[in-house]
C-alpha cells in the first residue's frame, strides 16, 4: 500500500471521554483492528516497519469511524507523531529542530537506540545514549526560537486552536521540527523490536550518527 505522510498532528475531533458512543465504537474497533493489521502485513503505513506489536490509527481523526479504509497500521512512534498532545500529556517527548533528517528516519533512529540500550553491550549502550542526548540538545534550538517551548503539549494546543487552513499548512509552518521520545514510552514494545533488530541498521543515518560518535561530553 501507499506510504502515508508523517506530519506532526493532533486529535481535533471529538475525544473519547466526551463521546457517549465511545463504548460501542471501541468494541467495534477491537473486532476490526486485527483485520487491519493483517491487511497491512503488520507493516506500519507511515514508515514500513514490520513488527509483531503495532498500533492502528484512525486517519480521519474520528475514533467512531472504524471502516477499514479509515484505519492504518502504525508503529507506536509514528502513531505518537499523529497525537503529539497525548505524548505531551504523558511527559514522554520533546520537540527538537532537526531538518537534516525527516521524522520517519528519526523514528527509525530512536527505535534503534532504544533497542541497543536494551540488548547491546556496554560500548553500544554508551553510544546509543550519546546519540539520544545529542539529539535532545536540539530542543534548546526550539526553546530559543520564536516558539519559545519544546513541549509537545504547547504545540498541540496551538494546532487544536488553529483554523482549518492553518492546520492544513502545518507541515510548512513546523518545517524542521521533529518529535523526540523518552524511551519509557515504549517499554512494552521493546521485546518485539528486539526480535527484528536486524532490520534496524544503525549506520543509515550517517551525519547524526557521526555527530554523536564525536561527542565527548553531552
- Estimated radius of gyration: 18 Å
- Largest sheet, if any? 2 strands, antiparallel
Derived structural class: mainly alpha
Overall body shape: globular
Mean pLDDT: 87
Secondary structure: helix percent: 40-55%
Strand order of the largest sheet: 1-2
SS elements, strand count? 4
The string of secondary-structure elements, in order, is: HEEHHEHHHHHHEHH
Low-pLDDT parts are none
List the helices and strands and how they pair.
Elements: H1 22-39, E1 55-58, E2 71-74, H2 76-81, H3 84-90, E3 93-97, H4 103-119, H5 122-136, H6 138-143, H7 152-161, H8 164-168, H9 170-173, E4 177-181, H10 190-195, H11 206-214
Helix pairs in contact: 3-7, 4-5, 5-11
Explain the overall architecture.
The chain is mainly alpha-helical and 218 residues long. It has helices at 22-39, 76-81, 84-90, 103-119, 122-136, 138-143, 152-161, 164-168, 170-173, 190-195, 206-214; strands spanning 55-58, 71-74, 93-97, 177-181. The protein has 2 domains: 16-81, no CATH class; 93-214, no CATH class. The chain contains 11 helices and 4 strands. The chain has a two-stranded antiparallel sheet with strand order 1-2. The chain has a two-stranded antiparallel sheet with strand order 3-4. Helix 5 (122-136) packs across helix 11.
Amino acid at each position: 500500500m501507499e506510504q502515508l505522510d508523517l506530519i506532526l498532528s493532533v486529535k481535533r475531533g471529538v475525544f473519547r471521554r466526551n463521546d457517549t458512543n465511545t463504548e460501542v465504537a471501541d468494541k467495534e474497533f477491537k473486532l476490526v483492528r486485527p483485520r487491519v493489521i493483517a491487511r497491512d502485513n503488520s507493516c506500519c503505513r507511515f514508515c514500513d516497519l514490520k513488527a509483531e506489536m503495532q498500533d492502528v490509527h484512525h486517519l480521519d481523526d474520528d475514533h467512531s469511524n472504524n471502516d477499514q479504509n479509515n484505519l492504518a497500521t502504525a508503529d507506536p512512534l509514528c502513531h505518537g507523531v499523529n497525537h503529539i498532545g497525548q505524548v505531551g500529556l504523558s511527559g514522554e517527548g520533546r520537540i527538537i529542530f532537526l531538518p537534516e533528517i525527516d521524522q520517519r528516519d528519526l523514528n527509525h533512529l530512536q527505535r534503534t537506540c532504544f533497542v541497543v540500550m536494551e540488548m547491546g553491550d556496554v560500548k553500544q549502550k554508551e553510544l546509543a545514549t550519546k546519540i539520544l542526548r545529542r539529539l535532545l540538545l536540539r530542543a534548546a534550538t526550539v526553546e530559543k526560537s520564536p516558539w519559545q517551548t519544546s513541549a509537545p503539549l504547547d504545540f498541540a494546543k496551538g494546532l487544536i486552536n488553529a483554523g482549518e487552513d492553518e492546520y492544513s499548512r502545518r507541515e510548512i509552518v513546523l518545517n524542521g521540527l521533529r518529535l523526540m521520545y523518552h524511551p519509557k514510552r515504549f517499554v512494552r514494545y521493546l521485546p518485539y523490536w528486539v526480535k527484528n533488530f536486524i532490520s534496524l541498521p544503525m549506520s543509515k543515518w550517517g551525519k547524526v550518527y557521526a555527530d554523536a560518535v564525536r561527542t565527548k561530553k553531552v
